[in-house]
Write a structure and sequence with these properties.
By secondary structure, this protein is mostly helical. About 75% of the residues lie in helices and about 0% in strands. It has 18 helices and two strands. It starts with a helix and ends with a helix. About 0% of the residues have low confidence.
Amino acid sequence: MDFERFVMTGRSGESSRKEMVRVGAVLLFLVGIVMFLTSRAGQVHFSLVVAAMIGGYMALNIGANDVANNVGPAVGSRALTMGGAILVAAIFEMAGALVAGGDVVGTIKSGIINPASIVDKEVFIWLMTAALLAGALWLNIATASGAPVSTTHSIVGGVLGAGIAAGGWDIANWGELSKIAASWVISPVLGGVIAAAFLYLIKRTITYQADMLAAARRWVPVLQAVMAWAFTTYLIMKGLRQIWRVDFQVAALVGLAFAALTYLVMRLRLAAVAPSLSNDKSGVNSLFVLPLIFSAALLSFAHGANDVANAVGPLAAINEAVTQGAVAAKAAIPVWVLMIGAIGIALGLALYGPKLIKTVGSGITELDQMRAFCISMAAAITVIIASQLGLPVSSTHIAVGAVFGVGFLREYIKSHYGQMIYAIEEHHAGHDQEVVEAYLSKFHKAGFDEKGHMLAELKASKQAVVDSHLTKKERKSLKGVYRKELVKRSALARIVAAWLITVPISAAMAAMLFFMIRGMMLP
């Protein structure tokens, strides 16, 4: 007992030391921001220093919460180690933010309020500061509770709440808010359906075939070519839109060229490695490792380019108001502002990202490389489809919805397969055990079409069991026996609840913070 207590005490001490190191790194980052601003030539505005610290805090929370969606599936499927995923994501998040983060940003995220309604520069600064702090605080709370939420929705809620507090209910653009509310359903459902469809396609064409490797040689190059098209198109439309604006047709054509190249390269690679692979799921899974690493990198780049604005957009707006003395609909993003966002996201990921990475990668359902591949595909394709249809979607909701879609499809397949095995065993009731086992072994090894033929023969056979003691009602109840819960319901409830309250709670927090700041700043 004393030894166990000693070990527990040691672990507790180690955990405390790690937490102190993390807190120390955060404080060093925030102090560095203050030192940089105070060292610049000219007068330093107090509001700008405070806003820069809050912007850095927001960037830390984006890295801790949102980046998990890009690398979680790769880590959960063991395509990347935790350390490798953090390194890849940190590099590409920073690259995306600095290279493609843009020179100009809208001062009011998603047009949720009308900036023309706020004519007082000081009120505008208080509004954006309250919105930024509220969004960051909510992300911090969500990360601590293990719930991946939308950073865009967090800052939108903050702007909405602070805006209403500053200018009344009429300041809000309720039409835009209704679109955002619709995305709570559209994003996860669309992501889940697309991910499940790809997983079913892989199972139908590859893993349900008797010769998996032969099927993989035919289909894996096609699947990876589709992924190359989707990610190239996605990257041009979303990751590079600040530095290269093209329409969907041009992006799709460039993506098609990369898809053709990928198909040819993968055909050659598979011809070389196929003889060394095992003819089972593990052999097929190994073919999806490299695409998962590329997808994690590209998703991180696009995320850094897009979502850095959630951290530095309000900060850029405050900087514009301080330096130019006016409220503008668009604000320039200085390099130092982008650096705060880029470094903050990378640092937040490294310090606090593993918790949410584990949640997305393994805390909802078990993932292998094929399932993770389907989730990454869904993340890119859903955004492309939604963009063309003009639908507002959240990358966080898409990715997590895709994880749930894969998990629920697995549940259905397991249940259906269990019922098929029961039908076989019921049909062979009274036969020798060796006969039953031989038939089941043949059924397990059969391809998808052959399984269907075997079951059809059973149903048509004159030897169908007629003396079973089970009633129709009892047979129906057996369906539940084979329904294995492969998706953690507690995670589902926690995450959905967090999604639903993100905008309302960040809005309420922002309104309270606005009144507090105004009370402190007014003479």
